[in-house]
């Protein structure tokens, strides 16, 4: 029996949420003396926080018939028009224009904002690493005081415009009293850009197959947090779900014939992601984590009892990798391609006679053969004009031999990116102690406080840190719970990767960030995303009792 | 480290899944000797199981440009056309007609089924209790042997046609080898209808607010299992999220000003549900479970320290109920309306001076006053031409006084419906021991084996059992986990409520039903629904390790 009324539980709450509730109640529809001034001085409920912004104290209404005016060389983009339609659906989901009761019928509705102008300077839709995602957003009343009236997004690329659309959608709030969409604290002037070019989420479709619709749901949700790289860990030892036309038996390694991705499915996912400004980086993890390859081609196993690492001694192994990568090159245009290289236990190479013989013939230790394998796979990727990404073991073991174009992907612990960039490599930060989503005991603060540049003071070395990535390994995450394991903690990392370090690293994050993250979590749920409570003891745990989304 | 290959784990599995795997592997794309004959003799992967069906041994291909031919008085229905478009999206999500590799390019594609004919005999779209949901579905090759070639659905109402569309979509399987949609085991001839007119799911939006988009996701998923009543437990003691124009302060009882439903939202939900053949039965639970009402109108509380049951002594209380129900009558056309009446602890009425005085003046015990309250609320509902539904406490306490139109809603335990129908009342079965979804320790078998007609032998009494309902109480279920708490167990109840009792009550359900339910769970995930593993120790628990959806 929960006897507290909502009002009572608000006032007796011991949680430090005062800032949020100043915001909540200062907007109260039923308080004729309400004012937005408290919010002005309080928090900004945008996630991730924009780099530079100013706001005011006006409330503007937004026309449910909001029109799009486009300009610039890139204004005619289909991606932009489709995004505008998506965001209209998000912003106006309550405003269907049907008023069933007299109270609101017949009112003359005049809106402050009836048009969104978007100017895109470049007509290139090329989506590559480091593409310009900056934008400027103005939202102001059309009057003599504002230079620019209405709502305007200016960006150099369509992808910057997409980021601006997301921010605009977060400024738009449905007001239940007037039943209209309003922008509070106008005029807004926002100048925004990401801190890091690479803001990733790893999805693992080998431990559990994720249907295409589910991957699309996740891509949609990534765009809400301005994440921009889907690292698709498509294959691992448990299953090989992807079609490879050149080696058509490979996907016999799928769990079942229904848990598969056709090449067209993969292309569909890439296209869906591009429309949201999201790169798809595929991973083919060799020579370990590849047992499932042998279900279709058993010759790629050293022996039936030694199924991974893949057989280093056969040209066939590299023929398959080459065919696979050539096929994937037709699907994945992103310049980075992940070759894995982690957790390679070479013991059984030594106990397989023909491999042992090959090692002796080539005068290689198993460790050297591991290096040989990784470098030969890198050569294949590079010959296809890909930039290889490898998990940090390759760097830790033979940094001096790695191709200098290699991007080192940290995961084992802290301190790796400083070493990698000191040697001139680029680096992606995914320290498992703070950015592995399957670590359910890492709270949102752990994700939020992680810093990809930690230990790197030199500005030119800092530039070599491409960014970071949160990893959703799939051993215990399937369709039923993957979204609630990703969110809201991935959003904590997303703000770290987007926003200005100084703005989000000062003060007590329990009062500066937590209420904003709780607000963003509720925004995700309103958009149909199964984001879990922010402060439960373990990630993805159910709420412990009845309550408001904004308190859980 | 999970060392098993998929193949290995299949063969070493101790789970009794042989029937399923006969089905899986007999279809193998890579086995030139594969045959569908094993499946013919095995299970039928339709959920819920149709009443009567015959199948054959042909495989038919379905044209991704499938067209709709409509006939009958009801063929021109907008509901039907929209449903056809939805199901085309579901059936052909992989068949985008883009072949990126030569292997499939330039093939001349001839399909066996290029048209779906739907004949609807009635043009009435009236959706009331007991509406005819029967349909006939034929899928056969167009040749001399079949009287009807192609695919044809015949139904008396558009709602029967919707059920037939769902079944047709479950017959259509994407074949990853030919990259086309196929119907196996054709020709199919299915004659189907529900066992019970009322097949419900309760959603509780008071303990946790569920956004409109989430409610729509749930409604969509209900239609896949042929459930047909959304029992919307919209208000409870914790929060009052619904707008009531006549008493506009009531939704001050919402958790926050953002966790609310406008009247237009409610109408939108009703319309969305109707398009899927789903009734929405709203509940206003009085006089208990109503504390949140007093946040807007404190006079409805007996006193600040006695907040429920609502004040039985004031006409104001019944004025509010009357206004609320009158407003809701404009939104909810379903003939049933739920008035709650459960778990009423009247102790504090006696300790509130003005209520105690009123009880004395009217010579009523608190128990009699509870009856008075329920009956007066019933009178209001009946005056609005609603059929009242009450939780079983009202029947258990004063059956002799209940309006004979009352529908008794069982929940406390078994044996209530037999008593209710013996007295001539209609009944809905929701025995909490087997059909409460928040009871995480009740496995799928518990839901599956429940029988609404248990203990009722007389045919005329059996007719008084409208059906049953699974209840998703929201104390620990919010947007993040509500779908995985509902599914797949709600589907077990859905088959119980739809299919022929004799067909699903014989044999060992571990071999006859479990593989089919696992298949249906995976179908839900492919449609983007977060359905949990079927056989985990507790409902909604994550998978315990890597594996196929079809094994978890």
UniProtKB/TrEMBL annotation, chains A, B:
GO molecular function, one term: beta-N-acetylhexosaminidase activity
Keyword Hydrolase: yes
One Pfam family, short name: Glyco_hydro_20
GO CC annotation: membrane
KW Ribonucleoprotein (keyword) present: no
UniProt-annotated catalytic positions: 343
InterPro entries tied to this protein: Beta_hexosaminidase_sua/sub, GH, Glyco_hydro_20_cat, Hex-like_dom2, HEX_eukaryotic_N
Glycoside hydrolase family 20 catalytic domain residues: 196-500
Signal sequence annotation: 1-38
Matches recorded under SUPFAM superfamilies: (Trans)glycosidases, beta-N-acetylhexosaminidase-like domain
Catalyses which reaction(s): Hydrolysis of terminal non-reducing N-acetyl-D-hexosamine residues in N-acetyl-beta-D-hexosaminides
Annotated Beta-hexosaminidase eukaryotic type N-terminal domain residues: 46-171
Keywords: Glycoprotein, Glycosidase, Hydrolase, Signal
Record-level GO BP terms: carbohydrate metabolic process; glycosaminoglycan metabolic process
Class of this enzyme: hydrolase
EC numbers, comma separated: 3.2.1.52
Stated family: Belongs to the glycosyl hydrolase 20 family.
Name recorded for this polypeptide: Beta-hexosaminidase
Organism: Rhamnella rubrinervis
């Amino acid at each position: 029996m929960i006897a507290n009324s909502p009002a009572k539980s608000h006032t007796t709450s011991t949680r430090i949420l005062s800032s949020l509730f100043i915001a909540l109640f200062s907007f109260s529809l039923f308080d004729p003396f309400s004012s937005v001034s408290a919010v002005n001085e309080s928090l900004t409920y945008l996630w991730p926080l924009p780099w530079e912004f100013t706001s005011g104290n006006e409330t503007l209404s937004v026309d449910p018939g909001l029109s799009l005016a486009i300009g610039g060389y890139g204004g005619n983009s289909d991606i932009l028009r489709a995004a505008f339609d998506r965001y209209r659906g998000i912003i106006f989901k309550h405003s269907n224009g049907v008023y069933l009761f007299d109270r609101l019928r017949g009112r003359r509705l005049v809106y402050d904002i009836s048009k969104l102008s978007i100017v895109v300077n470049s007509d290139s839709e090329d989506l590559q690493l480091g593409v310009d995602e900056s934008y400027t957003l103005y939202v102001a009343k059309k009057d003599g005081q504002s230079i620019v009236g209405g709502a305007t997004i200016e960006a150099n690329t369509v992808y910057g415009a997409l980021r601006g659309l997301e921010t605009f959608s977060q400024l738009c709030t449905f007001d239940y009293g007037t039943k209209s969409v309003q922008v509070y604290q106008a005029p807004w002037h926002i100048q925004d850009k990401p801190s890091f070019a690479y803001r990733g989420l790893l999805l693992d479709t080998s431990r559990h197959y994720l249907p295409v619709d589910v991957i699309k749901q996740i891509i949609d949700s990534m765009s809400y947090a301005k994440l921009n790289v889907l690292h698709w860990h498509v294959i691992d030892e448990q299953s090989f779900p992807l079609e490879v036309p050149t080696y058509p038996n490979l996907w016999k390694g799928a769990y079942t014939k229904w848990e598969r991705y056709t090449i067209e499915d993969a292309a569909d996912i890439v296209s869906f992601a591009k429309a949201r400004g999201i790169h798809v980086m595929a991973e083919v993890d060799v020579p370990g984590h590849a047992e499932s390859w042998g279900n279709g081609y058993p010759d790629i196993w050293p022996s039936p009892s030694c199924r991974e690492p893949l057989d280093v001694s056969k040209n066939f192994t590299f023929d398959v990798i080459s065919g696979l990568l050539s096929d994937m090159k037709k699907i994945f245009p992103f310049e980075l391609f992940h070759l894995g290289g982690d957790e390679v236990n070479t013991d059984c190479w030594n106990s397989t006679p023909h491999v042992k013989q090959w090692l002796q013939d080539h005068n290689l230790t198993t460790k050297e053969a591991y290096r040989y394998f990784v470098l030969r796979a890198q050569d294949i990727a590079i010959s296809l004009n890909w930039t290889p990404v490898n998990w940090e073991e390759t760097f830790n073991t033979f940094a001096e031999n790695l191709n200098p174009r290699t991007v080192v992907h940290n995961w084992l612990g802290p301190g790796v990116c400083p070493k990698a960039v000191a040697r001139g490599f680029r680096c992606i930060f995914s320290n498992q102690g703070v950015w592995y989503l399957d670590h359910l005991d890492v709270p949102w603060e752990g994700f939020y406080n992680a810093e990809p540049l930690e230990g790197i003071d030199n500005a030119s070395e800092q530039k070599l840190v491409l960014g970071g990535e949160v990893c959703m390994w799939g051993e215990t995450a399937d369709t039923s719970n993957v979204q609630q394991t990703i969110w809201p903690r991935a959003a904590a990392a997303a703000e770290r990767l987007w926003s200005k370090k100084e703005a989000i690293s000062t003060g007590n994050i329990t009062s500066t960030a937590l209420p904003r993250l709780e607000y963003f979590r509720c925004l995700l749920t309103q958009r149909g995303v199964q984001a879990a409570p922010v402060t439960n003891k373990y990630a993805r745990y159910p709420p412990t009792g009845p309550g408001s989304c904004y308190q859980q």
